[in-house]
From TrEMBL:
NCBIfam families: sigpep_I_bact. The lineage of its organism: Bacteria, Pseudomonadati, Pseudomonadota, Alphaproteobacteria, Rhodobacterales. Keywords: Hydrolase, Membrane, Protease, Transmembrane, Transmembrane helix. GO terms for molecular function: serine-type endopeptidase activity; signal peptidase activity. This is Signal peptidase I.
């Protein structure tokens, strides 16, 4: 028996299905979780290039930064154009404040790029680096030695970034070595950091974090453009509360290659890894 459905009706139903799927996906991305692919090595060895995770947007409530910017097929719509009604005086709806040590995706204050770093300084804190050691409110954090971080010297991720090494010039495929330590913050949270030697950012003045702002640093201390550098020169400076997007809790997937489709480069040992 021939179907009584008309071709026109099928097309309309398909359009409706696609439309509502996009609406649901948009709400999911805007209100709950945002996917994030790690593009650089600034958070090694906690996060590696090619790690994929979902950011929990509910962790700190909602601001204009909770809405995604749209840059696709000639469109260039900023998040403030979509969620401008949430943009007001550095505030958030249903907001809760981050804890020191949280790994957060946030919006860079000047150009709107999404960054991922660790919260080191809270409002009112004094932050300083002295000879490569982090000081918070004039007290050095606790450091313990840990085994070296070793990775292959080769191109990593879609951008083909080669790692920086502490053991000098390394040939392609050689062992790239960095010193590693366990750093414990004043609230007792510990994480590993890696270094490649004495750098300018290992010696800074005192940064006093303004009210309503946060100070971020990468775990790969000598290869992170973070709050130690002002936004005017490509750093992030002090990050306003409203620029926080969400907290990263767990790596879902990881690939060492230039494409996630290259299954032979998948790091299965990192799937569903909890972040400290």
């Amino acid at each position: 028996m021939a179907s009584d459905a008309k071709p026109g009706n099928s097309i309309v139903e398909t359009i409706k299905t696609v439309f509502w799927a996009l609406v649901i996906a948009g709400l999911f991305r805007t209100l709950l979780f945002q996917p994030f692919w790690i593009p650089s090595g600034s958070m090694k060895d906690t996060l590696l290039i090619g790690d994929f995770l979902f950011v929990n947007k509910m962790a700190y409530g909602y601001s204009y930064a909770s809405c995604p910017s749209i840059r696709f097929a000639g469109l260039d719509i900023d998040a403030k154009d979509i969620c401008g009604f949430l943009d007001g005086d550095n505030t958030r709806i249903l907001g809760s404040e981050p804890e020191r040590g949280d790994i957060i995706v946030f919006r860079q204050p000047t150009d709107g790029t999404d960054f991922i770093k660790r919260v080191i300084g809270l409002p009112g804190d004094r932050i300083q680096m002295k000879d490569g050691v982090l000081h918070i409110n004039d007290v050095a954090v606790k450091l313990e030695p840990a085994p070296d971080f070793v990775e292959e010297f080769s191109r990593q991720g879609p951008m083909g970034i080669r790692p920086r090494c502490e053991n000098g010039v390394v040939g392609e495929g050689g062992a790239c070595i960095k010193s590693r330590q366990i750093e414990t913050l004043p609230n007792g949270r510990s994480h590993s950091i890696i270094n490649i030697g004495d750098q300018r950012a290992d010696h800074t003045g005192v940064f006093t974090v303004p009210e309503g702002h946060y100070f971020f640093m990468g775990d790969n201390r000598d290869n992170s453009t973070d709050s130690r550098f002002p936004a005017a020169v490509g750093g992030v400076g002090y990050v306003p509360y409203e620029n926080l997007i969400g907290r990263a809790n767990r790596v879902i997937f990881s690939s060492a290659g230039s494409s996630m489709l290259a299954f032979w480069t998948w790091r299965s040992d990192r799937f569903f890894t909890r972040l400290d």
